Amino acid sequence: MKKFLAGMLSLTFALGLTAGCSSAPTAESSSPPPAESEQATSDQPAEQSAEQSADQPPDAAQAVTLNVFSTYAGSDGNAPNYQDALAAWQQGTGNKINDTSATADETVKGRIRTDFSAGSEPDVLFYFTGADASSFLDKVLTVDEIRAQYPSYATNMREDTSPKATDGKWYAVPVNGYWENLFVNKKVLDAAGVSLPDAGYTWDQFLIDCQKIKDAGLTPIAASFVDVPHYWWELSIFNNTSPATHNTIPQDINDDAAKAWIAGMNDIKAVYDKGFFPENALSAKDEELQELFFTDQAAFLLDGSWRANTIVTRASDDDEKIDEARLAEFTVVNFPDKGLGRKSTDVIGGMSSGWYITRKAWDDPAKQAAVVDFVTFMSSDEQVSKFAGANSATALQNGVTVDEATLNSLNKEVIAIINAATAFTPAVQDAVSGDARDAMFQAIPQMLTGSVTADQLIGDFIAAFTPA
Q1: pTM of the full predicted structure?
Q2: In terms of CATH, what superfamily is 2-177+351-399?
Q3: What is the mean pLDDT of the chain?
């Protein structure tokens, strides 16, 4: 039967969460359009009023091409869902999409900032809502501005759990939220004689287990510090703070926040010095090193909730039939805690991204109705349920609808670990100005090799930081 999971996921995140994580490594991806019976058409948008005739799709002679950017691509588990949705919307409206979706790494964030600065921004974009968006808020519309002309816009969303920008306003209509935790390849643990971590997994036990895995000739942790350093940066800081203090940004090298950040960086260096990361963690990209995890060579992968979909995909054949025995070799556990204020069951997570409509598209009479219709379609209950599934949070008024009969073993393990979470805390990196954060992330390899100390790394950040 189908079940609304509002209580489990959507309402779980109604804890004041407004920021989130930065990335899922991606490349281009495509999928065939869904069957005709599954295709939703935008000439029947949800809850539209009679006055909103502008919401109706144009006829063929009035069809437009929208420039769209998103972070749904490549190894992101929702890339196929995104491509299916694009195909359905284009077929239903007669409009076309020029899709430039790509990885949400630091390079692409810089590209988005440059595009807005140069006036070459897309018509619609699915993007982050924290400090990464601060530079272009004057070039996108708030939900309230859009509702002044399209009253039913985003009315299927809860405003209290939808992500707000750094100015406190609501611009982006969310789809799926996120959490960050430790994925595990149980086959590697078994080969090294390591037990599966439990809910009380500690940092000391984690280091002992990593040494056993290394001694067995395997890689303890799949991670890259070239293009995706932020998961280890975030959780290592969290391990030296608490849910109540994690989002405090250092102002002085001697304040408590700075001390916690320095301690977190030193924890990463200690793990690096022990040889628990891949030998090429400072030169190879994340997508390459993830293969160690997926091919039973690495035990742990610290990542976001979207990686659950990737694991399911990797455990499926070309016809999308899941090999349940293979899928059962993967799970997700709590990131180990140091006992300094954060429990292992305290999780980084929230709503951090959404669909923006740019003023450039809004001011184009040929595109305005189309961009509103596109976002309405992409954020409909049906589409959000497909994207969020059993693995992510949403802001839907009614929660996602999931067919319980379709839940796989990893879905069920995700539900269990999220239901057992004792706190959800936004990622502090999204409250950090882009330039200062980028410079800090780029210097992490130098810290790991010893040419820069953790104190210098955080001190340089404090000197460069300006509020978003």
Answers
A1: 0.73
A2: Periplasmic binding protein-like II (3.40.190.10)
A3: 86
